[in-house]
Design brief:
By secondary structure, this protein is mainly α. It folds into 2 domains: 1-118, Orthogonal Bundle (Rna Polymerase Sigma Factor, Chain: A); 125-202, Arc Repressor Mutant, subunit A (Orthogonal Bundle). Helix content is 66%, strand content 0%. The protein is built from 8 helices and no strands. The longest helix has 25 residues, at 81-105. It is globular, with a radius of gyration of 18 Å. Residues 1-13, 104-122, 124-128 and 197-202 have low confidence and may be disordered.
């Protein structure tokens, strides 16, 4: 089984992860723990950028690993573990988003303000950015489509190849490139007022 310790890192690391996954399949609790320690934070960050709620992202991350560990025996041998795991995470997030939308449709007009409530708690790596800019980034990210968010996070944050993202999303590489280009344009356009004067050349 081909895989890696991080997207894009081939070679001996792939054999190491393959061995850990094989041990996890056999029920080794230490192998389960090693997998969670390696992929826990990247999966949580990915989910956070999709659902924009830290507490919900943590809940979905737990569900992702539960499904992954339960389904290890069904994972195809020629699939990279990281690609397979992020595919599960995306499905879990999509289910949660659909459920949230159904719940919102059931909210009465008197409760319309509930639709504007957003989680303002800090997410992964947010301590490095000013609060004002971070809020602007979250708002701008919220304007992206789901497809644009997924490719933006997996390509730029997780450094995955287009081929891997295509497996996770089921989209063509051409569509992924288009979605990423549009996402970058929208993010740059929406953040321009906040970056002007702070970053040389902007």
């Amino acid at each position: 089984m081909a895989d890696d310790l991080g997207p894009g890192n081939p070679g001996a690391a792939g054999s190491e992860v393959a061995s850990v996954v094989d041990l996890a399949r056999a029920g080794d609790p230490e192998a389960f723990r090693a997998i969670f320690q390696r992929y826990g934070k990247p999966v949580l960050a990915f989910l956070y950028h999709l659902v924009e709620d830290r507490e919900k992202a943590e809940e979905l991350a737990q569900e992702t690993f539960f499904r992954a560990f339960r389904g290890l025996d069904r994972m195809q041998q020629d699939v990279r573990f990281s690609t397979w795991l992020f595919g599960i995470a995306r499905n879990v997030a999509r289910e949660a988003i659909r459920k949230k939308r159904r719940n919102l449709r059931e909210v009465g007009l008197d409760d319309i303000t509930l639709m504007t409530i957003r989680d303002e708690r800090a997410g992964p790596d947010e301590n490095f950015i000013t609060d004002e800019l971070q809020r602007a980034i979250r708002r701008s990210f919220g304007h992206l489509s789901e497809d644009q968010r997924v490719v933006f996070v997996l390509k730029l944050f997780n450094k995955m190849r287009y081929e891997e993202i295509a497996i996770i999303t089921g989209s063509s590489i051409g569509k992924l490139k288009t979605d990423l280009h549009r996402a970058r344009q929208l993010m740059r356009q929406n953040l321009q007022p906040y970056l002007a004067g702070r970053v040389p050349g902007m």
